[in-house]
Specification:
It contains 3 helices and 2 strands; from the N terminus they run ααββα. With 67 residues, the protein is mainly alpha-helical. The chain has one domain (2-54). β1 (36-37) and β2 form a beta hairpin. It is globular. The two termini are 20 Å apart.
Length: 67
């Protein structure tokens, strides 16, 4: 159920244009990580998730526990 909730929350916030209070901090951490893929789609090489949505889901976690 956690994965479904994260998908629902993350994509829901992304579609609605909601900026979450923790999102900017997560994006900054991701962009400094060596696993971050530098492209316009915001992907992580360790995680198959779309990071633009994942950083907006409060209960989502980084695969290597950076957030």
């Amino acid at each position: 159920m956690g994965l479904l909730k994260n998908l629902y929350d993350g994509y829901g916030n992304l579609i609605k244009g909601v900026e979450t209070p923790f999102e900017k901090k997560r994006v900054k951490i991701c962009k400094a990580c060596p696993h971050f893929i530098q492209n316009t789609n915001f992907w992580c090489s360790l995680c198959p998730c779309h990071m633009k949505a994942k950083v907006k889901a409060e209960s989502a976690k980084c695969k290597i526990n950076k957030w």
